[in-house]
Design goal:
2% strand; single chain; two-stranded antiparallel sheet; 9 helices
Length: 250
């Protein structure tokens, strides 16, 4: 296989959209219909696909050709950090789990092989952060993984990532406190109201629920764009036991 620098970055071949816009196909904010909406899927997946196509070209293979699946299996068998994280993810979409038959990492929660593959996926982020993957790129990666296998997460977690995805695509990065607040509103049944927000500022600015308020005043940091900063610690990835759902990755 072609040689690569250790922990090569991914998802940087496509310029991020300047602003969030409505999807011309599903009508929701672009990206939120992933993976069912074709336009939303292509908008998100292009960040992964271009890196994979570059690897295919380096190996003198063609997309959909006879050797693509074999390459995917080699990528997954390689040491962590040899390929961009986008190529690891794309390879997982091309390989079926030998145990459950589903897309690798997307099988039922009790599938051991899917659990192992999912844990191995996130080891890239912890070693590559922050030089090779930013907090925003990690969040985008988590959102894609969660929405590809929603049955492996709590419903509130899935809906929170769906709400956030259009803003992650343009580089907005919510704080951990803002994400928890969004999830609390989702649990309280306010998904429709949150889905009506057209900016990250509006979505993250929803008032705290009455039963979650305390006497202290919480400082609300300004929304940030995706960047390498020590202020955004890398989120803990999912590493569930085979018989239970993964912990919330937000």
């Amino acid at each position: 296989m072609a040689d690569h620098q250790p922990f090569p970055p991914g998802a940087r071949r496509v310029a991020r959209p300047a602003a969030v816009a409505a999807c011309p196909s599903c009508g929701d904010l672009a990206g939120r219909g992933y993976p069912a909406c074709r336009f939303c899927a292509e908008l998100l997946e292009q960040h992964w696909l271009l890196d994979w196509q570059e690897l295919l070209a380096a190996e003198k293979l063609t997309e959909g050709g006879a050797g693509e699946r074999e390459l995917a299996e080699l990528v997954l068998a390689d040491e962590v950090g040899r390929h961009p994280w986008t190529c690891t993810d794309w390879a997982m979409t091309l390989v079926s789990c030998a145990h459950c038959g589903h897309e690798l990492g997307c099988g039922p929660v009790d599938c051991v092989r899917c659990a192992v593959a999912e844990a191995r996926r996130w080891s890239w982020d912890h070693t590559g952060y922050p030089r090779s993957i930013t907090a925003g790129e990690h969040a985008l990666r988590v959102a894609r993984a969660v929405l590809r296998a929603p049955h492996r997460r709590r419903p509130a977690v899935v809906r929170a990532w769906r709400l956030l995805l259009p803003f992650l695509l343009v580089g907005d990065l919510p704080t951990a406190g803002q994400v928890r607040r969004i999830r609390a509103h989702v649990i309280a049944g306010a998904y429709a109201e949150l889905a009506g927000c057209t900016s990250h500022v509006e979505l993250a600015g929803f008032p705290e629920l009455p039963w979650r308020r305390s006497t202290r005043v919480e400082r609300q940091p300004q929304p940030q764009r995706d960047q390498d900063t020590t202020g955004h610690a890398l989120q803990q990835p999912a590493d569930p036991r085979p018989d239970e759902r993964a912990p919330d990755p937000v």
